[in-house]
Design a protein that fits this description.
Distance between the termini: 47 Å
CATH superfamily of the largest domain: Cupredoxins -  blue copper proteins
Structural class: alpha+beta
Number of domains: 2
Bound molecules: copper (II) ion
Radius of gyration: 26 Å
Number of strands: 10
CATH class of the largest domain: Mainly Beta
CATH architecture of the largest domain: Sandwich
Strand content: 25-35%
Oligomer: single chain
Length: about 210
């Protein structure tokens, strides 16, 4: 990288900026602020500084990051990624019987729009966003997370009772936000049909 030498031109600019800051500080100091008011301003600034420090320390030293694991993904290439390609979305069961549900959130729907899962079973949901920040909330369950573009949000949960559960977006994502929903049918464990055949067929098609 070429570093530009300090020329009289940009030396002038630095001088102007310094003058501006000096003027600004002088004007601020000349404003009359009541003693008590000044105390409260200082307390407010102290609280703001403390919060910023906590966030910074958490982010850099405690690894506080977007929800779930810090797993990144290219949101613009979801349809090309193996895991979130259209044919891999929905419910999948592996050889050990672990159930994984992959869903994509995009303005203004969750894809796939409807899935069926068994009750009283450990389910791993993996969510990604194809565009902006979304959220996912399933009322009457502990499912609530942000879906940050560029990150995979992973939640492990189970549904205690069979029934119809709406999946709602709880982060304002645009004009159609209130129409952004999907639906999960939770069926009794013994009535649930594992999509193994479906998965196998898909693999053959690919
Ligand atoms: Cu939304």
């Amino acid at each position: 990288m070429k570093i530009e030498p300090i020329t009289p031109k940009n030396h002038d600019l630095i001088g102007k900026v310094v003058d501006f800051i000096r003027d600004f500080c002088t004007q601020i100091r000349s404003v009359h602020v009541d003693h008590l008011e000044r105390k409260w301003i200082n307390i407010a600034l102290l609280v703001v500084g403390l919060l910023v420090a906590i966030i910074t320390i958490d982010a850099f030293f405690h690894g506080i990051n977007p929800p779930s694991k810090v797993e990144t993904i290219d949101s613009a290439k979801l349809h090309l990624s193996k895991e979130f390609a259209e044919s891999n979305l929905g419910v999948q069961i592996d050889d050990q019987g672990n159930i994984t549900i992959r869903m994509v959130a995009g303005r203004y729907s969750f894809f796939p729009k409807h899935i069926a899962v068994p009750a009283e079973t450990k389910l791993t949901f993996r969510w990604v966003s194809m565009d902006v920040l979304h959220g996912v909330h399933i009322p009457m369950t502990n499912m609530s997370t942000m879906i940050v573009p560029g990150h995979v949000a992973e939640i492990t949960t189970s549904f205690p009772k069979p029934g119809e559960y709406p999946v709602l977006c709880n982060e304002y994502c645009g004009l159609g936000h209130n129409h952004m929903w999907s639906n999960i049918s939770v069926v009794a464990k013994e009535d649930w049909l594992a999509p193994s055949k479906l998965t196998a067929n898909k693999e053959i098609k690919q």
